[in-house]
Design goal:
It is a single chain. This protein has 21 helices and no strands. Helix content is about 70%, strand content about 0%. The protein is mostly helical.
Length: about 525
């Protein structure tokens, strides 16, 4: 008999905490909403202070993928993934100095208004449609990954990747996030993001304190253990090999390794320039600031705080690794079914009542902060870039009912994609975080090439924009290991895909094709 409604071992207090969090989110979305015009609905009337925009920027980037994926990284490996953030610092500065002033001068509700000025309306529609497609797929993948963790919290399925419980979680979370996003618009999204980031930080700090107090080692003993970490059943190493889990810097040039200094400084700089300044998901909350200067402070400050928070969750992965080792904990060692479920199973089975509910609310917060941002960004792009709103009405006479309808449709589509991904993807094949991050490269490469062509040259037209987007995606497809390894004997890691794919996209974009569509 199917056990679809068998709840997890969380106590009644935990469920009350989770329900209370959900109620407050809806209350905030209803309280802080701008719905008079498209500018108010999609950009909060440019009324958001820099600190709130920065927190929303961080909450958007710190999805449930990071919440679960960051501990998984260090549980299985070391601190090297933190080097991926080195390029993001450079990217944040470049976006603050170069791209944000341009976006504010253009004055449209999306970051693709500049594409219209440079390549015409058709070029903007190409890019808006391309972004929307990629964001739908990426958002669906992120929702799917989050639901894997949530399925073991709300229920207790034997196989969460294919169970009815997982599908139910995807649908429930997707529709809930879509509902409050459609009510509050971007203003509601940003202020709920602020709350959600505080919940994420609080739940993470609780887990650090409790794990530190439970592990019977002093700090010097922990450091010594982690420098010579042994193999465990959940995180096996080569026979007789230990690993230094505190290793941070890897100077080797290896195309196949995404965790080197070079992948972080070069590959992730280009990856994040695209994500911060040429993606409506992140750019939308930056455009909601009062000025380009405030937006620059938001992107730089938010990213620096992101490094601290991700480092904290990676540290949780190290603590969970020690907590699961009987050589450290004895009979009190935590029993986890796999590395990707260790954090969620720790939350359900090992946290005190009430605190477990807070941690579950933290995962929900991470899910919602990425879901609401994606839905709002795609909706604004469809409305502003694809011409649902007239050109003169994009900032003054928008219709809130049409905007809310678009938001609802986008949310349903994103949720449907998450269900489809759940049916075809096996999370045991690769790291969940790598899986989600790599998807955005297919659209990001072309968009970066188009922006570079617009900023660095005066060549190209609307038709070449469309071909550039396709060439970027085709290049990223050709960089997949299933193609490069048998043909060339090399594997190129995902942080390089956007940068490499943007090169042919740039070259194609600067070659005019057919009749220029500057209308």
């Amino acid at each position: 008999m199917t056990t679809i409604f068998t709840l997890s071992v969380m106590s009644e207090i935990d469920w009350i905490v989770v329900a209370g969090y959900a109620f407050v989110v809806v209350l905030l979305a209803t309280r802080f909403r701008g719905d008079t015009t498209d500018e108010n609905y999609y950009l909060a009337g440019h009324s958001i202070p820099a600190w709130a925009s920065g927190m929303s920027f961080l909450a958007t980037g710190f999805s449930a993928t990071w919440f679960i994926g960051s501990p998984q990284w260090t549980f299985n490996g070391d601190f090297r993934p933190l080097m991926l953030f080195s390029g993001g610092i450079v990217a944040a500065v470049v976006v603050a100095i170069v791209l944000l002033p341009i976006h504010y001068r253009v004055g449209t509700i999306t970051v693709y208004g500049y594409i219209e000025q440079r390549f015409g309306v058709l070029g903007r529609r190409w890019v808006g449609a391309w972004f929307s497609l990629g964001a739908l797929i990426g958002g669906g993948a992120a929702l799917y990954v989050a639901s894997i963790a949530l399925s073991s919290l709300f229920f207790n399925p034997q196989n969460p990747a294919t169970s009815n419980q997982l599908i139910l979680i995807i649908i429930g979370i997707g529709l809930f996030g879509t509902l409050y996003t459609s009510i509050g618009g971007l203003c509601g999204v940003i202020w709920t993001d602020v709350l959600q980031l505080l919940v994420i930080m609080g739940s993470g700090l609780f887990c650090v304190v409790l794990l530190m107090s439970a592990i019977p080692l002093s700090i010097p003993e922990m450091i010594n253990y982690l420098r010579h970490a042994p193999s465990t059943p959940i995180a096996p190493l080569l026979e007789g090999e230990n690993i230094n889990k505190l290793r941070l810097v890897d100077w080797h040039w290896q195309w196949a390794d995404p965790m080197t200094v070079w992948a972080g400084l070069i590959g992730m700089t280009l990856f994040n320039i695209t994500g911060f300044g040429a993606s409506q998901v992140m750019g939308q909350r930056l455009l909601a600031c009062r000025s380009a200067r405030d937006a620059g402070a938001a992107v730089i400050g938010g990213y620096l705080l992101a490094i601290v928070i991700v480092a904290m969750f990676m540290f949780i992965g190290l603590l969970l690794f020690m907590y699961s080792d009987p050589r450290v904990m004895g009979d009190a060692a935590g029993q986890f079914s796999s590395s990707d479920r260790a954090f969620s199973e720790f939350i359900v089975n090992h946290l005190p009542k009430g605190v477990s509910g807070l941690a579950v609310a933290g995962i929900l917060a991470a899910v919602m902060s990425s879901l609401d941002s994606g839905v709002s960004a795609i909706s604004s792009s469809i409305t502003g870039d694809l011409g649902l709103a007239g050109r003169e009405s994009q900032t003054q006479n928008g219709t809130r009912h049409a905007a809310r309808l678009v938001t609802l449709i986008v949310g349903v589509c994103l949720t449907t994609i998450a269900v489809l991904i759940a049916a075809i993807h096996n999370p045991g094949n690769d790291a969940l975080l790598d899986f989600v991050l790599s998807l955005s490269s297919f659209t990001g490469a072309g968009i970066l090439g188009v922006f570079a062509a617009g900023l660095l040259t005066r060549r190209g037209n609307a038709h070449s924009v469309g071909l550039a987007l396709l060439s970027g995606a085709a290049t990223v497809f050709c960089l997949q290991p299933i193609i490069t390894q048998p043909m060339f004997g090399v594997v190129i890691a995902w942080p390089w895909w956007v940068g490499i794919g943007s090169i042919p996209a740039f070259a194609v974009c600067i070659v005019p094709v057919g009749r220029s569509s500057m209308f």
